[in-house]
Amino acid sequence: MLLCYVNLYIFSMITLSKLLLSFGVSSLSKRPKISVIGVGYVGLCTAVGLASRGYSVIACDIEVEKINKINQGIPPFFEPGIQEKLSECIRSGMLKGLANETDRAVVETDFTYVAVGTPSKPDGSIDLTYIESVALNIGKALKQKNGYHITIIKSTVVPGTTQNVVLPLLERESGKKCDVDFGLCMNPEFLRQGSAFQDTLNADRVVIGSHDKQAGDKLEALYRDFYSIHVPPIIQTTLSTAELIKYASNAMLATKISFINTIANICEKIPGTDVKVVAEVMGLDKRIGPQFLDAGLGYGGSCFPKDVKALIACSEAFDYTPELLVATENVNKYQPLKAVEFCRQQLGTLKDKQIAVLGLAFKPDTDDLREARAIPIIAQLLAEGACIVAYDPVAFPTANVIFKNSIRYADSVVGCLKGADCCILVTEWSEFKKLTPDFFKAHMKQAILIDGRRIYDPQIFNKKLIFSAIGLGQ
Ligand code: UGA
């Protein structure tokens, strides 16, 4: 009888593991343990992505408050889709946060992702303070660790950093040898804020730069297991090539935006032309493609402005000035000021005029204002004596830190438009796309609208109110 139960148990376990395997969930007990150091957008999405697919993950940060929030299942920033998954992973125990315990995170896991910030220095080059400090701590932890371990740099770092800065620190502090005792990879991320979590789960490609083949192959195996049946192209390369791929990709996208904004500025000089139509038709050419050809007030965020500057600084350190990237940056510097120029054209002086600003975040679906185009626009409007009333669906708390009480914050579109002499659409949140010309007319003092992101149909809006738009030759 007992034998019968044992047989039945073994049979059920085999069937269950077969079933799990058929869903792409390989033997959970054999799965590597993972730690992630730095839980900003990249680190948290990586940690939650892995934990949600059955890996045991430790998320580590120096900010105790951030870790406390994570352990309560609350993301420290607004990002669609992550809230629910994070609380699920915390509840199931697959993810746990540790503050200031890099050593424990490394000792208890097989792979450690480094996703700390690499902010810009005044000369545009990147500040490696956090990378260096984490590499030092990982090195110390590796000294106590038994067994092979792989460190993966996910932070955006200029070519040469992993090899020349991280590697020596790991070897010096651990007293061990890379390739023999531990591995080192560089694995850039390509996720976009606003869809960061989805991008983590469905990548276009995975780039693995490695110091040696052993580490590269082990990380590739991890990704093959993680993506299961939908494995994206995985490219193994050198550490420096992986680092450069990240910068080249962001520089290309930023250049595409500055290019279309240049065409937009030309369109505004030629009556009857419209950059939207130009971009749409250009995008049909497969060699060009339709994406990142949305003309507007320029690019912002924590990546493009910083990465273009860093690539310029890195090239200049090698005595080469990348003129194309310098131009990309210059176009982006002046593009937001087009909104103020349009205001002046319509209102004359801006002194004591009330300007409604719709959208403050650097793009929709985020509360992030880093390098947001709203910042130079509002600064210039204030310098010319205008009063600003702004509304953003989620970014009020982050905006308040920047603008403080130099502007007024409305809690609805109606509140923002009330009494306004002119409205500038700065961020294309979907709630703004539904607004009609009659709505603007009904709530503003003067119905003057500047479409900084080309979300309104000029044929309809031109008829009913005073309407200017980026890239529209009137
Ligand atoms: C960008 C890249 O798209 C990601 O692939 C990359 O991983 C990320 O940087 C990073 O390096 O971490 P993100 O900054 O989140 O992602 O935002 P994007 O969607 O690329 O938009 C950046 C800026 O460009 C926004 O201000 C947006 O309004 C602007 N933009 C974008 C345009 O003005 N026109 C476009 O056609 C597209």
Describe this structure in a few short sentences.
With 474 residues, the protein is an alpha/beta fold. The chain contains 20 helices and 14 strands. The chain has 2 domains: 31-239, NAD(P)-binding Rossmann-like Domain (Rossmann fold); 267-298 and 335-469, Rossmann fold (3-Layer(aba) Sandwich), CATH 3.40.50.720.
Sheet with most strands: strand arrangement? 3-2-1-4-5-6-7-8
Fold-level CATH name of the largest domain: Rossmann fold
Q: What fraction of residues sit in β-strands?
A: 5-15%
CATH superfamily assignment of the largest domain? NAD(P)-binding Rossmann-like Domain
CATH C-level of the largest domain: Alpha Beta
Q: Tally the helices: what do you get?
A: 20
Domain count, please report it: 2
Secondary structure class reads: alpha/beta
Overall helicity: 40-55%
Q: Give the overall average pLDDT.
A: 94
Hetero groups bound? uridine-5'-diphosphate-glucuronic acid
Query: Total number of β-strand segments?
Result: 14
Biggest sheet features:
8 strands, mixed
CA-CA gap between termini: 89 Å
User: What would CATH call the architecture of the largest domain?
Assistant: 3-Layer(aba) Sandwich
> How large, in whole angstroms, is the Cα Rg?
25 Å
State the low-pLDDT regions, or none: 13-28
| Principal-axes shape call | elongated
Commentary on this structure:
By secondary structure, this protein is α/β, with parallel strands linked by helices. It has two domains: 31-239, NAD(P)-binding Rossmann-like Domain (Rossmann fold); 267-298 and 335-469, NAD(P)-binding Rossmann-like Domain (Rossmann fold, 3-Layer(aba) Sandwich), CATH 3.40.50. It has 20 helices and 14 strands. The strands form two sheets. An eight-stranded mixed beta sheet has the order 3-2-1-4-5-6-7-8, sandwiched between helices. A six-stranded parallel beta sheet has the order 11-10-9-12-13-14, sandwiched between helices. The radius of gyration is 25 Å and the shape is elongated. Bound molecules: uridine-5'-diphosphate-glucuronic acid. Uridine-5'-diphosphate-glucuronic acid binds at residues 189-193, 250, 253, 257, 292-294, 296, 299-301, 303-304, 362-363.
